[in-house]
Amino acid sequence: MKSHKSESIQVRWLIGEIGDLDKMIAMHRSADGDFMAEQYEARRLKYFKELISLLANSAYNVSGRETFPLIEGLLKENYPKRRHRSAVAGGHKSFEQVLHFYETRKAKSNVTSTDRSGVVAEPDAIYRKK
User: Fold this and answer.
1) 69 CB contacts (<8 Å, ≥6 apart)?
2) Is the pTM of this model over 0.85?
3) Is residue 106 predicted with pLDDT exceeding 90?
């Protein structure tokens, strides 16, 4: 089982890569480099699928109610039925929501772990060999 920390790092990395690819796609679309733009779009789709898979299989996704609305928002924003080429270069509100989701979960898990550390440990004298 993956740790929550590695999952949030992966999500942050994937979103960063998708953002970088969006810039490259916009640059090559404006320069009439459709071949290169299509290559970047293929890589973007690969990273996007990884992001969706990570969210669907998330350790935080207990009942599906936690991450499925985020997945729906990502799909609607990034792959709407009618796609405008300029929409790719715009801001991504759904990516911000995903990052916020992981940040709030990370903060909650930090609070829980500090609460556990406040438990009084049993004395070591009981377990020492005589």
Assistant:
1) none
2) no
3) no
